[in-house]
Amino acid sequence: MHPVSLIALFAASASASVTPRQSAVNQNVIPKSFGVTAGEGKDQVQVGSCTGANNKLIPCFCPPAPDSPEFLSKLSKALTDGFIFSKEQVALPITLDKFNDDSDTSVETTKLRATAMIQVMQNFNMTTQGVGCPGVAVPALGKMQQTGILARGLSGLGNNGN
């Protein structure tokens, strides 16, 4: 075999075995609404608090919209790293590749996606563990985590229910 052909053969086989690494989150596996809209139901007594699910108070900045670039970026980073902070704290239960596989609609995977999104929400500032949006800010994710079904019908959830 000619040396140039041999080099081309090796180059072709090497490039065929490399799969592109995903870096963005597949928004098709994220609910269109978390069931609560940030800033609604401002509390008159506790300034800076708004109404979340079950009339529980939440920070008024919670939750970010499901398509918020900041949320998607933090979720993508956490899923890529496998951790929100370090290997000793807050490990995510799912990889970015598995999270993004919208052909996998299994109950188990849907629950893992919801758990990962809730973990990112609860640690939203990504600098201090536990500083972010509580679970009552994202009732659609809580429903997903419990049922394993992507929450589409949000009637009765949170402060907007649609």
Description:
With 162 residues, the chain is mainly alpha-helical. The chain has a domain at 21-36 and 65-147. 36% of the residues lie in helices and 4% in strands. It is built from 5 helices and 2 strands; from the N terminus they run H-E-E-H-H-H-H. It has a two-stranded antiparallel sheet with strand order 1-2. Strand 1 and strand 2 (57-59) form a beta hairpin. Helix 4 runs antiparallel to helix 5 (139-147).
Number of strands: 2
Number of helices: 5
Cα radius of gyration in angstroms: 20 Å
Fraction in helix: 25-40%
Instruction: Choose one word for the global shape.
Output: globular
Can you tell me the residue ranges where pLDDT is under 50 for at least 5 consecutive residues? 3-20
- The succession of helices and strands, N to C, reads HEEHHHH
The percentage of residues in β strands lies in under 5%
Oligomer: single chain
Q: Structural class given helices, strands, pairing?
A: mainly alpha
Biggest beta-sheet profile: 2 strands, antiparallel
| Rounded mean pLDDT score | 82
Strand order in the largest sheet = 1-2
Distance between the termini: 66 Å
